[in-house]
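INFO  loader      accepted 1 record
INFO  loader      residues=82
INFO  predictor   begin
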Amino acid sequence: MHEFHTAIDKAGRVLIPMSYRKALSLHPGEELIMQLHEGEIRLFSIDHAIARAQKIVKKYNKDNLVLSEELIQLRKQEANDE
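INFO  predictor   done
INFO  writer      dumping C-alpha cells
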C-alpha cells in the first residue's frame, strides 16, 4: 500500500483513506484499538486483535483442545477438592 500523508484536525481527528479502510474492512462507527509503540501509533480492528490472539494460542495448543472446557473441568475439580 502506498504511503499517505494526512493532518490532525482541531478536534484531534485523523482521516483514514478509503483505500485503507477497504483493505482492512473497516466501517463507520467501528471501534478500533490504538497502541503507542516505539514512537508510532498503531490502529487495528478488534477482529484483527482476536485473530492475532487466536494465532498465538494455536501455536501452543497443538492438540486443538477446547480450552474453555479444560478450564471449566479444572474449576469443577478445584471446587470438589475444597
